[in-house]
């Protein structure tokens, strides 16, 4: 039985580890040819080699416009086109609003926000040539609310959410769907585990689904949005957060 992405070509940024790695593994398992793009060259190459002939690694600094141009040209030459883009690359910085320097603020925006803008713009023409495509932007639950200490991160993730809706409106007539995924409470290299942090353990205990999320939880939602299973869905946001944003568990439940 063919996979959900059989015959598709996908580019996933920031996919050498974490959520991007889980997405790459799942996409390959579902029949896609996957371009793993990151600045972590050793990890990216190792992952591509482990996934076999349907995965390749390419160095990509998502904040570099010329780097996007060269990688997209390479993909078109290697695979003949591109069907799916997952804008996953991001960084996280904690600091109080008053203590956040312009340099630190702009560094987060350059990767999280500008990188998503450049990536989306870069794939429009290649996807038009294929008669359509799917773009999945990884935002965050902090793109749906505000949290102290996250002014740069939240600003960038709200921007990704808004950018998704603009792109969906403009690109829908070309058969290109654009949606955003909003992870929260996911175990990655950027977040401590409940065992490592009492604060994280307390947070998880109050979720309607009281467990720490795993990268594969996000990857499965991304797969749905990248596949024809969501063929009539665009411009939407999908929290993957154990119910954190939209509901609360009963006290003592």
TrEMBL record:
Domain Ketoreductase: 8-187
Pfam families on file: adh_short_C2 (PF13561)
Residue stretches spanning the membrane: none
SMART domains per record: PKS_KR
A GO molecular function held by the record: oxidoreductase activity
Enzyme Commission number: 1.1.1.-
SUPFAM superfamilies in the record: NAD(P)-binding Rossmann-fold domains (SSF51735)
Enzyme class: oxidoreductase
Keywords, comma-separated and alphabetical: NAD, Oxidoreductase
InterPro entries on file: KR_dom, NAD(P)-bd_dom_sf, Sc_DH/Rdtase_CS, SDR_fam
Protein family (similarity comment): Belongs to the short-chain dehydrogenases/reductases (SDR) family.
Protein's recorded name: SDR family NAD(P)-dependent oxidoreductase
Organism of this sequence: Marinobacterium aestuariivivens
